[in-house]
């Protein structure tokens, strides 16, 4: 019979086997999750149901669609239609078109469709969701810069593609896992596909298989510079707060200079790895422009960022150690900036002299400082403690992993009102808030905000905090005595002590505090 095949929201053209096929799309697919490439003629990577809604053949209520396989195309355009934004793709090996299916065939499938579109038995669907999400523990946006020069030749180029494919699969690519793209280095660099083009290992593998060998000189330096500057833009799919990595594959040696490209990559916050295969022999070294080319290009010359394979044959055993390196985000030294590598604790005076309306100005100051940093589970973190004679942890470093949540938590802090025991509060914060993160990778900062004299000693607790690796900034308002502020602040005290007569003056201090934190962060890295 002509029964339609029930498919899921995510079934793509390339998942079908026949030249013409009648399918049945389920209802209520999430429009924003559709990957659709082209308009009218869609790249076979596209979701069939997504393309059918885009084309107006069905609505989100689902329905019958006839899919016709077509040859590959150059330049699939991006068009917004029926609530779906299709994406550009420069080239793909096969395509399809969609037309309305006939309902009588669809009816026979209705019985089946429910069970196939949404498996109702306990375990199955969970698994597919996780596979889509990918390996969440591996935080990386990766460009594989492959060698397409005459040095490598067509045969070894194919072996290189196999190796890159294996690495891509083992990484665990997915919507919440690593994203990858490929750039080919030859005479002129060519970005083959971007981070945003594919979020499933199967699609990436297919795209790698389709890559054609370009040939020419191995102008790796030129390609590295181009990739560092152009590849990681937000519109091309780079994600905020995720380490940017370029893995350079080099067969033999480069025809141009890598030093300048290495500097540019570091300036752009990109971690460069070099995988060298078949290193130059002693006789060949005379032909290499710069014998130290690896050391000059990598993120840091500490051994971690360079990787060697003797040949392109039997490379399977090299896949896992390389993947482990690419997934260890705490080693990505070139990603670390003061904005994504600090913990900032705010110690907020809630004594009765502050008053409700000034307390709001204090919270605004705290928000404006926090806003400057890239807060995430692998980035910077913020915590807040309010104190009178007592202390209250408003939220700790591990409570909120996004900037939005942190800012909303700051807004929701309730004013306590009471006395002022700043020394006790510093000890409490050192122990309870910074204690749990003291062995973490981030540098620790404490910003103390107070408007008056403390009833207890501040010098001892502040010295203990500094000894525990916390840099202290003191911010005083109104009646806060300058001696107390200086006693709390880290060295050099002048640049860590701030004072304003009025609470409205806090606003002007925001940029100075941010700059101070960044300066200390950089000084600690020297």
Automatic annotation (TrEMBL):
InterPro entries to which the protein is assigned, alphabetical: ECM_Assembly_Org, LCCL, LCCL_sf, VWF_A, vWFA_dom_sf
Keywords: Disulfide bond, Glycoprotein, Repeat, Secreted, Signal
Gene Ontology biological process terms from the UniProt entry: sensory perception of sound
One GO CC term on file: extracellular region
Function: Plays a role in the control of cell shape and motility in the trabecular meshwork.
Family matches, as PANTHER family: COCHLIN (PTHR24020:SF36), COLLAGEN ALPHA (PTHR24020)
This protein's name: Cochlin
Gene source species: Menura novaehollandiae
